[in-house]
Amino acid sequence: MTTIDMKEELYKAQILVEALPYIQKFNRKIIVVKYGGSAMVDEDLKRKVIQDVALLKLVGFKPIIVHGGGKEISSWVKKSGMEPKFINGLRVTDEPTMEIAEMVLNKVNKSLVSLLEELGIKACGISGKDGGMLRVDKKLSGGEDIGFVGDIKSVDTTLIHSLLKDDFLPVICPIGFGDDHHAYNINADDAACAIARAVGAEKLAFLTDIEGVYRDFNDKDSLISELSTTEAKDLLASGTIGGGMLPKLNNCIDAVENGVSRVHILDGRIPHCLLLEIFTNKGIGTAILSEEAEKFYNADIVC
Ligand SMILES: Nc1ncnc2c1ncn2[C@@H]1O[C@H](COP(=O)(O)OP(=O)(O)O)[C@@H](O)[C@H]1O
Ligand SMILES: CC(=O)N[C@@H](CCC(=O)OP(=O)(O)O)C(=O)O
């Protein structure tokens, strides 16, 4: 082995050693990964995300994937001769759109299961309708009727826990049941947050199409690496957060305030962003922390 080869091998070993305290910390802990955006459209990135989740499972974590597929739903809505319509980031979902959304989300769901199975991971793809997991009320947006869009009112975790107990990796798509027994379309960020809260996840990671949260959206140097819930609320009140980041950040605050220790917004365009965030000392993206967690989170990590 040449000196250069030896240095490269030592570097790899160092990375593995750096991961050790994180592996110990998260052993048998539940991590919910909200998977959507560009990382879902690009086939190469998709494989890398699934490899990351497979690795988390194989080193002893209990990952759960909650996925979206908004871009693919829009593409099929267009193919069907309709125009996708959103109000405040939520898809206006009439009967034909609901049918397309359910078909597309189920297709995406099974494609993720296939990728995991290819890597030897026992995965089970379900929707929020299975086992009565996600029960919803009809959601109104600014008082407007936006069709079959669900506001989650309860999460029954029985099926998720059964799957985890039998060593399956649950892959969940955001469709729920209303009291009228109709299927409802749920924003995938809302579904991920509600599920993470209900199962008492240690971590919730949102993979999205941007580096993280910017203090000033027009200044790309203003990326925030850590935000307490108080700071996040101040930021929301300051009006510098817009678009899809508004509900995402609100979901982050909701998750942290309801027992999820650490919530991350990660750039899904970066290959292996999940591994980089979880297993390295630097971390990437924006972490939203409770005041307590901020003080104690790294206290027991010894490198
Ligand atoms: N201050 C901000 N920091 C980061 N993103 C912001 C900010 N304000 C608005 N945004 C917008 O929020 C978007 C992320 O939300 P969204 O597109 O809904 O993500 P996803 O499709 O992954 O759920 C970003 O692409 C960006 O355009
Ligand atoms: C009500 C509502 O808007 N539902 C979303 C569900 C999918 C989703 O959220 O996908 P991403 O996470 O990839 O955006 C939709 O129909 O697009």
TrEMBL record:
Reaction(s) catalysed by this chain's protein: N-acetyl-L-glutamate + ATP = N-acetyl-L-glutamyl 5-phosphate + ADP
Main location: cytoplasm
Binding site for substrate: 69-70, 91, 185
Sorted UniProt keywords: Amino-acid biosynthesis, Arginine biosynthesis, ATP-binding, Cytoplasm, Kinase, Nucleotide-binding, Transferase
Species this protein is from: Lachnospira multipara
Superkingdom in the source lineage: Bacteria
CDD domains in the cross-refs: AAK_NAGK-C
UniProt-listed Gene3D superfamilies: Acetylglutamate kinase-like (3.40.1160.10)
Catalytic activity, EC: 2.7.2.8
GO cellular component: cytoplasm
Protein name stated in the entry: Acetylglutamate kinase
Pfam family, one: AA_kinase
Job description of the protein: Catalyzes the ATP-dependent phosphorylation of N-acetyl-L-glutamate.
Residue ranges of domain Aspartate/glutamate/uridylate kinase in the record: 29-267
Compartments, record wording: Cytoplasm
Site (Transition state stabilizer): 34, 248
Family: Belongs to the acetylglutamate kinase family. ArgB subfamily.
